[in-house]
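User: I need a structural model of Type II toxin-antitoxin system RelE/ParE family toxin from Sulfurimonas crateris for a docking pre-check later this week. Nothing fancy, just the predicted structure tokens so I can convert them on my end. Input:
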Amino acid sequence: MLDYIALDSLQRAIDFKREIHKQISKIIDMPYMHRKSIHFDNEQARDLVFKGYTITYFIYEDKIVILGILKYKETFLIKS
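Assistant: Understood. Predicted structure tokens for Type II toxin-antitoxin system RelE/ParE family toxin:
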């Protein structure tokens, strides 16, 4: 994702990386601040929407796991 942005502008890629890192770091203090995920039927799965991207993460008792970063309209491919 950052490589793609950098093709247009290296500075924009650097700024985007800094901004997205800042948003993700807020999850640590307030993990439930974002909406319940549209990709999973589980209260622990959350979606942080940021600049056209959805950062989906899962809240465990002792950790938070980022499941992926997708363009807003994309969905996860889940194998059963």
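Before docking, keep this in mind: The chain has a mean pLDDT of 89.
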